[in-house]
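Homework-ish question, so no full write-ups if that breaks the rules, but can someone show me the predicted structure for this set?
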Amino acid sequence: MSTLAEPRGPGVAARGSMTPIPHRVVDVVHETRETVTLTLEPVSDGIVAPVAGQFTMLWAWGAGEVPISVSALAADGRLVHTIRDVAGVTKTLCASRQGDVLGVRGPYGCGWGIDAARGHDLVIVAGGIGLAPLRPVVHAVLAERSEFGRVSLVVGARTEQELLFRAELDEWWHRHEVDVRTIVDRSSPGWSGSVGVVTGELVGLEIDPASTRAMVCGPEVMMRVVAQHLTDRGVAASAIEVSVERNMQCAVKTCGHCQVGPFFACTDGPVLPWDVVASLLTVREL
Amino acid sequence: MTSQTLAEIDRVVLPAAGLDDLFDSLHAEGYPVLGPTVRDGAIVIGPITSSDDLPRGWGDEQDAGVYRLVRRDDDAYFGFAAPAGTWKRHLFPAHSILWRARVVRGAPVIEENEDHPGRRALVGIRGCDLAAVAVQDRVLLHGAHPDPVYSARRADLLLVGVACGTPASTCFCTSMGTGPSVGGGADIAMTELDAEDPARHRFLLEARTDAGRAVVARVSARTATAADDDAADAVVRRAGSRITRTVDNAGLPEALRAGAEHPRWDDVAERCLSCGSCTMVCPTCFCTDVRDEPNVLAGTDDRVRVWASCFELGHSYLHGGSVRPSPSARYRQWATHKFSTWWDQFGTSGCVGCGRCIAWCPVGIDVTEEIRAVAAGPTQEQGVADGRHDDG
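A: Not a homework solution, just the prediction itself:
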């Protein structure tokens, strides 16, 4: 490795497209049994500020790198990521403690069409960890509430204990500015809400198809069912956005893993309009 | 310099006995040479110091699942088709360290790999493989994030193409518009002439760029005549007429998109071993995996990148399982990427017609046959009726 450059001090290595930028963990919030929200601060130089729906590649020393969506937009170069521990690199990331240094590349991908939703009704549908990339959308709506028409948020989780951002959901519900609905796959003692799949809550929503836009993130089967439900009710497929999840190793369109037909989820997505991806996500194993 | 002199430099003829003159010129211009050479019973790409390292007198026999060297009855230096080895290996290594991290004052410091091989000449690259370099340029160089490893190896390359006079039965460059002549991108285009006659055995050298002219200007050669040009044209014409495999590209991307559920994908999956051999020999395949390789004793963590294949089960792995668990879906991904979605992504076909995937498939699957069957769009019943299911 004599060809490697000499160390240039923390955080000031040359920035190739595959080189992470060191960030320090400044806050750790355990959201649920398997979900953690990390707030990161650049050790020296940061990255370009992300927009809602984008992701970064988070690197943990010795473990590797994974794509993690931005779960809130923060000031001063801070980054907020909510990570579900599904073993591997995510387990290491979720075990991070304040003061640890992680690597960040990005931000990558296309975000949600928040501007296109101004002046429209907005239906936001999230399943499980899918609420993480949609939370900054809710924040954006609440910050400029009068810019949007009727706004509904339907959140599905396996159980009440696995509902993400529970305190915030309660707060949003109490503000009555967004129609917040939650539904769980399995009820548990004390749960008085709905039980079933997210479309069970969508059925009860009043929807004006002509003026509705939708943003959907969750397991692919959930996104398919929700998009189908909305288009059946007259919402244009082009007004529905989904966030596509695929294996990603480079995030810059060169590793080949995240292809969905003609698209690279990392750069053409992850947020893609349903009219564009419906024919791809409905072919088995494409 | 007068235009007459320029023209003399542009097209010259070098006797085969003086081929080392070219290597001397390349070395004098500061280019270490990579080229075809015989190793382990195959023609691979490796360092070349003189014409002695070239596969003189060797030809090859290639067919579906077949590759073997054969002795030619002449002293041709370039009397073979697509080498077993790819030039890709030298531009986009199968294994590279992207960066190394070490901890300095409590925080990781990341040192990028700045390995830069500098000037190198690729001598003997065919039209198909030259087109493959152009395809990889589009993928790895011309995107929003140029790949650091590829761009370091791609810079300062001198490309010396050799027209192909000896296509194999696996070749279909004429369908893909990449050969047998030396297409765009070469600094010098060569044609080997009259190898069967030691007295007339010679090379026509055409300098196409200033870098190429600088090399050719050093060679002791005579100016090419119209007869040399005619002989070179005849080599390419004869080679083209011997290519029998075809791909009909008209409407092919659309037909493959429409054929996503075609039963032929299941049919080919019955024969395909998902070994990924086709992707390893392909000169355009670019998929890679990255992994961390920590060294506890050295206190370092290396980010390593290795070639990957869309035939691996893990290629599409997400938490909970793979997107493409079936071999059928994985073959479809590979074939439709090459001939259909590559166009959407990079504005070109992902296939250059070199035929390596056909020769190096251990069960002899011919991708041109597979995509032709899908593009023809028969139903399941027709597929059975015309005997396609007995292929394997």
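Now go work out the reasoning yourself. Hint: Chain B has two domains: 3-241, 252-390.
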